From TrEMBL:
Residues 95-301 form the ABC transmembrane type-1 domain. It comes from Cryobacterium levicorallinum. It holds the Pfam family BPD_transp_1. SUPFAM superfamilies: MetI-like. Keywords: Cell membrane, Membrane, Transmembrane, Transmembrane helix, Transport. Its main location: membrane. Belongs to the binding-protein-dependent transport system permease family. It is a multi-pass membrane protein. GO terms for cellular component: plasma membrane. This is ABC transporter permease subunit. The lineage of its organism: Bacteria, Bacillati, Actinomycetota, Actinomycetes, Micrococcales. PANTHER family: BLR7065 PROTEIN, SPERMIDINE_PUTRESCINE TRANSPORT SYSTEM PERMEASE PROTEIN.
Length: 313
């Protein structure tokens, strides 16, 4: 006589393969985790220890070579390097410039990307597709080449001043100014923002827009009440990636910006190589890291909200 399987035995039989696969999944994910901890996590811990004056061990060589190194007298370190950096008027000016350029560039990038995405969503046609395609072109141009093109385009003998000179007008020189840095930052950040925001807007059903139009809603009402709220998560992701990319940029401000003030990416490079003050450059790197972490918190929250809306959390 054969006994019929009970409900509990069926449940255990179904759950057993999933439980058995858990160690396999863990070991498959272990190599990249080890690589991240070894080549990213460990250097970060080592650099932070050096920034608070722990100059022994692996930090001994760079501490003996560098100038103006603050050594800790206690096991927990010393904030002397942070105090020196945060009381330096030049570095504070570079910090304010970094924050200002990041905020302005992010606003311009999101405004342009949102405009292109809305144009493509609401006025789909050849011109809209051409505009969205042109916005992606900077993605395939190296940043070094783009930066050099910006310098030659807006220099004292560049294209802009040459054209204006034909009409007897003296155009401004934007090469090696923060204006050129903003232009370069927008150029390099726009393609990803366009792709992200456009994909988010295209995922919104057209039936909702048609229903709003039938109810008498105008263009501005549709954008503010339907499109932007429903594409909020992709827009926020575009904001965070743009801001993080600009705040830690080096190539664009190095090629197109002035000697001083400039962004912290260039300043920390100068302190490390030209001034031979590695501890101060590491402190500036952690300041940028803190700013980027604050921006990344919005990205984590956006992903959590998206997962919650989909019922995954």
């Amino acid at each position: 006589m054969t006994l019929a399987p009970t409900r509990g035995s069926k449940r255990r039989a179904i759950a057993t393969p999933a439980v058995a696969r858990r160690p396999l999944g863990f070991f498959l994910a272990l190599p990249p985790i080890i690589l991240i901890l070894l080549f990213v996590g460990f250097p970060i811990v080592l650099a932070f220890a050096f920034s608070i004056g722990l100059t022994g061990g692996l930090n001994h060589v760079i501490a003996s070579i560098g100038l103006n190194v603050h050594e800790a007298e206690n096991w927990w370190g010393t904030p002397a390097a942070y105090i020196e950096v945060l009381s330096n008027s030049r570095i504070l000016r570079d910090l304010s410039v970094t924050v200002g350029v990041t905020a302005l560039s992010t606003v311009i990038v999101i405004f342009l990307a949102l405009g292109i995405g809305l144009f493509l969503k609401l006025r789909d046609g050849r011109m809209a597709r051409l505009l969205s395609g042109l916005a992606i072109i900077p993605l395939f141009i190296p940043v070094v080449i783009a930066s050099w093109a910006i310098v030659t385009f807006y220099s004292g003998d560049g294209f802009v001043r040459s054209v204006f000179a034909q009409f007897g007008v003296e155009a401004p020189v934007w090469a090696f100014t923060m204006v050129a840095v903003v232009i370069g930052s927008v150029w390099t950040s726009l393609p990803f923002a366009v792709l992200m925001i456009t994909s988010g807007l295209q995922a919104i059903p057209n039936a909702m827009i048609e229903a709003a139009r039938d109810a008498g809603a105008g263009f501005l009402r549709i954008v503010v009440s339907i499109l932007i709220p429903m594409a909020f998560v992709p827009i926020l992701i575009a904001v965070t990636f743009t801001a993080i990319g600009v705040v830690g940029s080096f190539t664009v401000p190095y090629f197109t910006g002035p000697n001083a003030p400039n962004m912290l990416g260039v300043s920390m490079s100068n302190y490390f190589s030209a001034f031979n003050q590695p501890q101060q450059s590491v402190v500036m790197a952690f300041i940028v890291f803190v700013i980027a972490s604050g921006i990344a918190a919005a990205y984590v929250w956006a992903n959590f909200r998206s997962a919650k809306d989909q019922g995954k959390v």
